[in-house]
Structures are given as structure tokens and as C-alpha cells.
């Protein structure tokens, strides 16, 4: 071959390659990849998300993030994400990588009793492609993983597996679109769809809808109803499949928008009707949707209610009903079935144990109760049933003597009643069950008024649902716990038990399908709503109910304690503890929901303490005669409450904190210089039963742990300061005297040793004295002048890191000094009583001094320059407020009490007007 020909062929090859590259970039690559078209058509659910930072924030605000983070699957994802961060020398790399990409996650059945997930993540830049490649290379170098590649139909598949158990993921890049799954079979299905372009997408019926463009939407969910029954078979026993097929009979697929909002998760969208000839939709087509009228007879112990609102419940029967024993029975059944109208429902009642089968009822509405009672009597006589009946309140239970009566009247979806059967009638509603034992608790609840329409919580829930619906599924996750445990396959029960907190996060769940006014044509879709709801701020108490207002929460009785903020992991706003005048302690979640309430035997004494017991955080509170400890769910810790001796009236409570080796110690001030020391197991420690001092304490004592040793510092009004050990002995160098009376606690700077631990006090003669726990006075200087009746108090900030000093004179003048001794502000008040002062310091000059005037019941807020914030005061009927700083809004969030109301106000730091904010 000549050199000229060789050069010509090489140039031709280069030109062809260049042309192919230009064609790919200008023609193929310019066409965006339709991620929905890559989803295999056997997907059960497809979740699409876009704004992931906002989604994570909403999950944290609704506390769902805490529940999801406890799942083993998400813990594994988090662990792998942290590993990638360490390998790539970055933080939160996964969240930044996802950013605002449209990510699809689909659920697929991959075998008997198993399912897997398929993820699609677009790669928008070359940098992102390099990040993926760098992460794979880093994992290949890690001894824990094995990275391998193979070719499948022209595509390179990369597998990342753990060497120990072989688990891992497989992924490949299709036109800068990353396809990931732990099941290689799903990856191969995607490649098969790529090889056969033109196939209908799973979202083809919704190609013109993009809910993610709406501002309040966090995600979209595609539901393939035809795949739901086999998917539920993965979890539940086969006998429950007929109930699941009701949804399959009404719709074939649906697209929903997902919104996380406060105490609920809301999904709205549309469902395409099922087009199969014998589908349920075809039998009820054209019948108007109905109201849930039977709420007046649905028991509060209902676990699951599957409600069908159709004009003619008899249309639910198929063309081949169960054969009747004789013609008289068949005639009675036909006459009875024609009397039913508007509503039919299958109801499961709560079971006391998973080992016990739940009571199952079929409720159906009749137009003429008298006629139905007569027909039921004719049916019993035709069957030769006994005329005897059982009375429950004003109602009667009769035996039928015929199995599967509901299925004979209403179709196979109401089957599963193989016993002789029992029936009861309550007004316009007839209830069928297997035996009288199933009807008895339901009738007892109806007679006692324990029904949905009498429950404020349930009424509030029903008001948020659709008033008219063709199909409604109601689930109470509290009542249905044992029912679901019994219905689950044996191998799935452990998973539900591990995820109990997540399952019960939203106790009220409903799914509803509402038909269109005109059901013919493309517009004849079902409006679909799925609502997962946690009961809002309405709780029953001994004195009334709690209601939500736009400016806060209104309690049945006035609040008597300042709000206590409780930091909650992954929540934007804190939780709140508050006590009312009925001595009921309430915990309000960051969403403004009353999580729990408990009645104490008296008013709170001292501040609420955080104390971890049994490995979980909790709250330690005291009343004059008892000490309580609650976890975040409101459950009492073991051995609590602790009952103090009859001679003790607690005036203060401090704690040592738990160190894991021994129980925490509780130091209770009993008034008059008496102190008692207990541990959280209820043991009284010797030397403290009680420890009696000659003078009254100037303030609650300080319980310090220095170098593993307990140090209990007690400041007395006469100016003497004691430091005791756990046995009640006095530390060397103590007591010490500051030379003047005290009216304040100390500001503590704990160190690793007694000598390096410093405490600062201010005497009533205006001297600031600093001493250490070796008993030496380190520094003494005069802070201010004093006159008779002047009081000085040290006010630490919310984290005990800095402090201010408050000087109050009998003339009503109040002066605040900072830690350096500089005068911060001076204010003259008309009233002369002592003013509660609080100090908040959030760094970078964000300081706030709150002064509460008990007379006019107003609180004054002063900034770091001593200026009254916004030249405005706020009402406060208790002796304190709480404040946090919102950096994004450049404003203080003020929590204050006004009578029966707990309010949160956003107070801007730049002179703008305050804004009332809901407690969520």
C-alpha cells in the first residue's frame, strides 16, 4: 500500500470520526433523555424529586427525617455517603451532587417475596461525570469493596460490591444519565428498553403534567394500580388480596403531587379509570359519589375502613353470585339486596393481640329500616335460624345460619365470612359479621357514643378529607398495629416492628377516589387524594380542648410557666414545654402539635432540666413533693415519679447528669437551708438526709462534676459559700466568705481541676468576686455603687457562656452591666417589685436582654446596644420568655405567654414591624 493511500485512508477515518462526533453532539446529545421512558413498565411506584435541599429541609421540619434516618436502609445509605465523603475529602457531597436534579426512584417486584429499587440521576456537567468516576476509583482502592465491569448489549456496566457479603450496586451511564440499582436484572431491563425505542412510557398518560413546577410540591408519585396486588403480596398473606383488588378494579394508574406540610403529608392528583370489561369501575360507572354518612356508627376502635360510596351497592355483585340453599332463601336475599343504597363498607376493629383475629364487619346503608328488619326476619325463617337474640344496649344481635351472606348480597370483595353469620341493625345501617362476638364491641361503642362523629380529633380529620368519594380507605395506624402484624407474612413482621415509630408517625391515613362529573372521555379521571395526618393541636384535657390560632395556640386554662425550648434534632424550630394553671404539662413539637400532656401534682419548681436516662434524652421536672422524668414521647422513666418525704417542700432541683457508670444524682433544695441528695434509682445518699445549713440559700445550688468528682456549691444569703462532696463532706478551703450578702447564683467556668474551675458572684454591695474550687478568692473589684435596698444578680446567657449583671434599686430603676463592667442600659419602671431579667447571646453581636415587668405584664427587649428593640413591648403574663435568632430572616423569634395563649413572634433586627408566626 502506497503512502498516499495510507494517508488518504487515515484522513478519511479521522473525518468520519469527527463527523460522527459532531452528529452526536448536534443531533443525538441535544435531544434530552426522557427518564420516564427508561423506567421498566412493571414499576409499581415511581417517585420523582427535584429540589433536594428543600425536600430534606421539609423532612427535617416535619420530623420525618428522624424516622427515616432510623431505618436500616437509610442508615446504610448514610454510612456509604459518609464513606464517599471521607474518600473524596468533602462534606455532604451526595446532597450537593443531587442538588436540583430531577431524580427518579422506581419500585419493582423482582421475585417471589422480594422487590428492588431503580434510581436515575442525570449528569449535567463534565465535572459531575468526573466526580462519579473518581468515586468509583476511590472505592476500587478501598479494601472493603470490589469494583468490576462487564459489557451488556454494548453498554458497560460497573458493579461495586462489598467483599464480605457481596451486596452492592450496579450502574451505567446512558447519555450522561446515571442508572443505578442493587439488582442487575433491573439494569438489564433498562438496556432492553433502550434497544427498543418507541415503547410507551409508564407516564405516557400524564406526559403533559409536571407537578414539580409547582412551588409547594416536594415530589411526584406515579402509582401503577395493576401492580399493587402482587406488590402487596410481598408483604401480606394471600387471603388479603381480594381487598387490595378493589383499587385495581377502579383505576389503572395515577400521578400525584406530594406535599410535606406541618402535621401532614398530602398527595393530590388524578387516576385513570380501569378499562377492563369486568372491572369494578365498569359496574359503578355513572353512579354519583356519596358522603361518609356511616361515620355516626363507625367505632373509635376501628382499625381499617374500606368504604364504597355508590348509589346502588347491589351493582357490586358479579354476574355469578353464590348459589342459595333454596328458592325461598334466594328470594329473601334478592329482596334484601335491593334495599341497600349509597354506602357499603368493610370494617376491621382493633385487636388486643396479633395472635387474635380482628373483628370484621360489613356495614351497609338501607333506605327503609322497617322494611329491612322485616326482610331479615324472613331470611332467618327461610334458613331455619333460631328466633333468639342477644341484646346489647338498645340493639339486637341475630344469628343467620348461612355463611358468606355479605358476599351473596354485595359481591366477592365482601367475602371471607365462612361462619354461620350474625346481623345487627342500627338505624339506617345493617352490620354483618361471622359471629355475635364480632358485633358485640361495635354495638357497645355505638351505644356509648364512642363513634367518629363524637370525636373532635376524628371530626377534624374528616373535615380535611373529600366530602364525596366513590372509594375511601381509612387507616388508623394506632388501632391497626396488631391487625397488620397478623396480616403480614412471617418474614416481614420483624421489619414492621423495627419501623414502628415511622409507621405510627401519622396515626390517621386515608386514600380517596372521587369520580369526575362527566366520566366519559379523557377528562373522566378520578381525583385522588392520599392524606397522612398527625392530629393537629387539639388534645383532650380535664378542662377542655386546645385550639390552634393564627397567632399561636390557645389552651383551656391560663399558662403559668414560661415556655421552655427543647432543641430537636433536624428541626428548624425547637419544641416547647409549658405548664398551665391546672398543673398539666404540655409538650409542643416544632410543628405546633401537642405531642403529649400529663397532669402533675403541683406547679413546677425551678427550671426544666435535660437529663438522659437509659440512653435516651428526657426532661426532669419537679413539683413541691415529686420529681418527674419524661422521655420525648412523654413516657415516664423507670422508678419515676420520685415521691419526696412528707416533710420536704422542694424549692429547687439540680442534677449531676448521667455518666453511664452510675445513676445521675438529684439535689433537692427543701427550703430553709435543707438539702436532700438522691439518685435516679430512688436511693437516698448518706450525709444528705438532710444536709442542714444555718442560713437560707441565696440561689439554687450548682452541681458540678470536676475531674470525675461531684462538687456541690451552695451560696448562702449571709455571703458564705460551701463546696460539698457526694458524701456531704466539705472540700478543703471551704467555706469562704465574700464579705457581704448574696442574692444571686454564680457564673460557673468549669475546668479540668478544682484549681482551674472558677466561679463569679456579685455581692449586694456591688462587688464582683471570683474564686476557684480550691477555696481561693482570685479577684475582687467593684462593679457599681449601692444603696440600701439595691439588689445585684448575675444573669447568664442561654448556654451559660457569658453573663450580664442586673442592678435593681427600690426606686424602680434597673441597670444592666455587661461582663466587662460596662453599663449596657438603664431603665426606670413605675413598679418597684423585682423584674425577671433574661440574657440571650447568639454570637456576632446578636445579644438580647429581656426584662419582664410583672405589674403591667409587659416584656421589654433590648439589643446589644441597649436600645429597645423596635420601640415596642410585648405582653407576657408569666415571669419570662424565650428567644432564638433566625439568621436567614435577620430576626429574633420570641416565644411568650399571654393568658391562655402561647405565641411566637418574629421580631426583625432592622426596625421592621414584628410578625406573628405560627408555632410550626
TrEMBL record:
Provenance organism: Hymenobacter lutimineralis
Domain of life: Bacteria
Family annotation (InterPro entries): WD40/YVTN_repeat-like_dom_sf
Protein name: DUF3352 domain-containing protein
SUPFAM superfamilies tied to this protein: 3-carboxy-cis,cis-mucoante lactonizing enzyme (SSF75011)
